[in-house]
Amino acid sequence: MAAVVDEVVQGTVPELYYQPSPESVKKLDPLEGGVDKDRSDDRKRVPRKKQSAVNERKKSYQDLMLRKREQNKRAAMRYRQRKKAKAFEMFMEEKTLVNKNKRLQQKVRDIQTEIRALKVLMRVLSINKTS
């Protein structure tokens, strides 16, 4: 009777009893290599979803860096243009101020000449007055 029960149990539920194949025993045997080669290969392989996610992250990072680089180029270009415009503006202001300074210096010379002429005239008039 025990044999019949064993047959029924073994026949109806065979997946509960795991019996390794001789090949898998060799793979797990430390003397035969010690590593389950099928599993070690599985660990090295990255599933497609993860790999595509990694590639997507890498691509998005590269896109981000490219956008940042382009943004930096444009900012540098704007800065250089502002710097040139400021230098040109200062050059034009200097030119204007130099011309204004020349006109004012000429005006000073003209006034000084007029002062000398008036002093001479005052002396002549004062000499004539006293004589």
Automatic annotation (TrEMBL):
Q: Which GO terms describe its cellular component?
A: nucleus
Q: Which GO terms describe its molecular function?
A: DNA-binding transcription activator activity, RNA polymerase II-specific; RNA polymerase II transcription regulatory region sequence-specific DNA binding
Question: Which residues fall in a compositionally biased region of kind Basic and acidic residues?
Answer: 24-44
Broad class of the protein's primary localization: nucleus
Task: Provide this UniProt record's keywords sorted from A to Z.
Answer: Coiled coil, DNA-binding, Nucleus, Transcription, Transcription regulation
As recorded in UniProt, coiled-coil segments are: 94-121
Residues annotated as domain BZIP: 67-125
InterPro entries the record matches: bZIP (IPR004827), bZIP_sf (IPR046347)
Protein's cellular compartments: Nucleus
Q: Where is this region: Disordered?
A: 20-62
* Family the entry assigns: Belongs to the bZIP family.
Identification of the protein by name: BZIP domain-containing protein
Specify the species. Answer: Menopon gallinae
